[in-house]
Every structure is written in C-alpha cells, then in structure tokens.
Design brief:
The protein is α/β, with parallel strands linked by helices. It is built from 10 helices and 11 strands. It is elongated. The N terminus and C terminus are likely disordered.
Length: 279
Amino acid sequence: MSAAGEGTRRPLADRTVVITRAAHQCPELARLLSDRGSRVVHAPAIALADPDDWAPADRALRQLGSYDVIIFTSANAVDRFALRARSIDAALTGVRARIVAIGHATAEALARQGMSHVDTAAESRSEGVVHLLEAEPLAGRRILIPRAAVARELLVEALRERGAIVDVVPVYRTVGAPLTDQARRMLARGDVDVVVFASGGAVRHFLAEIGGRAGLGGAAMAVIGPVTRQAAVELGLTPAIVSTAAGMAELVSAIEDYFSRASAPRSDPGETSRGSAPR
C-alpha cells in the first residue's frame, strides 16, 4: 500500500478504501473519498428487501390522519415508506402529524418527499429522539414508526413507558450481500488501507463474509457513530476510526485525521473518536 500523500494536505491520496454501504447509498461517500485522491472499492455488505408482510404499513398509510407523531429513523425508511405510499395511492404530504427525523440525512430524505416541516433530533440515534420528545406529554398519543424489520427497541420502549400508543411498521429488511471477488482478493493480499461501515448490519454481514476479524487483512476499520461502533465491539472488534457525527463528511474527516498521523506508531486495537495512529 502506497504511503504517498500521507501529509497533512492529502492524507487520503493513494489510500485504498472499501465501502460496505448498500449500493444505492455509496455515491456521496465515494465522491468525498475520490475527491481526496482515494482509490474507492465498492463492496456492499447489505442490500434492502421488502418486509415479510406489507399489511401493517398499508394499514398505517391508509390512516395517517389518526397519528399524532410519525418518527422516521433512517433515510431508507423514508424512501421505502414513500414508495409504498405511491404504490397504493396514499399521500404523505399534507399529514397533520408532527414529523420527527433521526438526523439530518433522514430530514433531507423527507424534504425530497415534500415534507419540509420536520423536527430533527440533534443526535442521529434513538436517544436523540427520546431527548427531543422528553418535554412533550405522550400519554394516549398515537405514534407511528416506519423502520427496518430489525432495529434497536430503545425508542419504542421509551415511548411506550410514557404511555404512547406506538405502531411499528416494517418497510424493509436488511439482508446480507455477497462480498465481491475484487474486495476479497484485495483484503487477502493486504492491499486495503481502511474498510468503512455505516451500520451495524453492514459490520455483521461483512465479517460473516470474510470469516471474522482476521479477514480484514490488517486494514483499519472505520465506523460511523456510537451505534455502529457498539455493533463492532459486540463482535469482538475495536474500530480504529469512529466519527462523532453521522454525516458522510464527518466520517471522511475522521478517516483523514487517522491517516494524517503518519509519524505516530500504529496501535492496532487503539481507538479514539478522532482515530488512532495509521499504519
């Protein structure tokens, strides 16, 4: 792996970065890395599939007017819910419910669907929404959460503890995607500088494909935010790079920080929110 461009101005130049996001979510991150001179390898670890049953989502779409609050936990949930709405001739715009988004990426997805009056949680995880709604009386209020079939239950439990009537409707499933032959060969040769993960699901599926930690071949592990970090820790890994915010720009900045420390000795298990010393 080339050490060119490790200076403070171009720390990512000639670095090989594997992106494990779902294919439709790769372009922004790939562009940011390419603009900094990185060699980007697309190796989606996950893909989105329909939920096992659309009936709960269809019922919710037909009675959107009965909800007091609708919470979207990801841009994927927004896009899939909106797509389903169009397929059954339901309308998301004009809904009187309070619309809440986890993070700015989710809020931007809602804006693209014509829903601009959105309350956005400052923290891009369930705890952020809990904090956003902590002063609001919720007893007896109906709350809708379109989301992945499998997700953290913290938000749902917190809302129900406060007396809210919460409907959770799956609008997609996250399934594993096979590792590309190119990525597999490059990891085996030790030709990858960093592998980037933006979700716990991507971590789990990718590690299953490569046979665990050893399959990383010495590449650094970069994750977005504390939830993805925790998923890695539960699998016995300590990411070298953890971005403190959920945006792609923040993630790339954390990776840049890591590789800008070219003169520091490498500490493989070490980790900070700004990144540990690079190879």
